[in-house]
Amino acid sequence: MPIFQPELETLPRPKLKALQDERLREQVAYVYERVPFYKQALDERGLKPGDIRGLEDIHKLPFTRKKDLRDTYPFGLFAVPRHELARIHASSGTTGKPTVVGYTKGDLEIFAEVVARSLAAAGAQPGMMLHNAYGYGLFTGGLGLHGGAEKLGMIVVPVSGGMTERQVMLIQDFKPEVICCTPSYAQTLAEEFKKRGVSPEEISLKYAVLGAEPWTEAIRKSVDEGLGVKSTNIYGLSEIIGPGVSNEDVSERDGLSYIWEDHFYPEVVHPETGEPLPEGEVGVLVLTTLTKKAMPVLRYWTGDLTYITREPGASGRTHARMAQIKGRTDDMLIVRGVNVYPTQIEAVLTQIPEVAPHYQIVLRRERTMDEVELKLEVAEPFFREVGAQMLSDEIIEADHRLSALRDKVAHKIKDNIGVSVKVTLLSPGSAPRSEGGKLKRVADLRNLG
């Protein structure tokens, strides 16, 4: 596939490092002069900007965490006065004050550039139509993908999230080649097409750019088959810039996404100690913005668990690649002393063909013991084969094979993860579905306060 900016995306590693060194030095000096938070943090460590000569010194810098954004709400980490801003975005703020991020006009140019790179890597080309089902508004997804698509020369349909019937109608009528949305919403759309008797071959879509929530190869397979597309992962977060920090190449699709390292320098560190980890070892992704001016961040602790490799991919790009997110440190569930990530459970389910990749984890606590219930859909072919009957959404075990399946799932999860679960089998289509936003896989009903 064509590379959007080959002169930068295939830059030889020594030249890329020299560029990163220069930009890091400039960024540290910039925030020291303009952001009191960083001046204080560096002073407390006895550091001056001149002490940071390049990437070999980046470990000396302090981490920036989401709490720091909330503590300096709304504009305490901004490096420019308000009249130099071009746009403000913010998180949903479901657990309190939102995290606020800002952009200069130059930042928005960079935002569009990295998203255009990502879309090109995903298979998009100038002249193609993008069905943009990411939410518009304070969330960075909708406007971020919109700007990058226009930069690439695409036609953008700004549908936003939700209203699934209208989404399906527009895809059928407008015939876009590319769609972007959350992986769970892509599954929802695929199911809706199937209900209407529309086969994947009849859908115009060729490529799907999916992100904003962790997903697995099983979900990729279901989206690819359900929509007739090749799906790739796009990664980003608003504190860094938004979507477009990295993207898979559609010709590779090996679970590794190119990080646009000339703008965002990646590290992986130990979740507890913060010490840098060797290449290939899973830890917390930490990102430093090298070119952003409105709200630059040093060593932002993303909370996302992944690993990085600098082994070159087949596309010819030279930038580092990150693995699919394994989970988040704040998504980790501690169940009877065992650390559990929802993606671990999903990985086990991919090994069981009788079930579908639609589930919900429900946590309860009776007295002092945690109980885990896995509500899990049975795959349609198996559901029809056993002739199951239903009471509401829950399956009545009219066939011994259902009881055997429930035991099989429970045993596999126990063997692979070390946690006992109660498995409740659901009929096809009855587990929670995405309506355009992020899908909540876990219902934690424990009172842990």
UniProtKB/TrEMBL annotation:
Key word Nucleotide-binding present: yes
Pathway recorded for this protein: Aromatic compound metabolism; phenylacetate degradation
E.C. designation(s): 6.2.1.30
GO terms for biological process, alphabetical: phenylacetate catabolic process
Keywords for this protein: Ligase, Nucleotide-binding
Domain AMP-dependent ligase C-terminal stretches: 337-446
Nucleotide-binding in keyword set: yes
InterPro entries reported for this sequence: AMP-bd_C_sf, AMP-dep_Lig_C, AMP-dep_synth/lig_dom, ANL_N_sf, PA_CoA_ligase
Catalytic reactions on record: 2-phenylacetate + ATP + CoA = phenylacetyl-CoA + AMP + diphosphate
SUPFAM superfamilies per record: Acetyl-CoA synthetase-like
Transmembrane stretches, start-end: none
Record-level Gene Ontology MF annotations: nucleotide binding; phenylacetate-CoA ligase activity
Domain AMP-dependent synthetase/ligase, chain residue ranges per copy: 80-287
PANTHER family: BLR5969 PROTEIN
Protein's job: Catalyzes the activation of phenylacetic acid (PA) to phenylacetyl-CoA (PA-CoA).
Subunit: Monomer.
Protein name, entry field: Phenylacetate-coenzyme A ligase
Origin species: Calidithermus roseus
Lineage, top ranks: Bacteria, Thermotogati, Deinococcota, Deinococci, Thermales
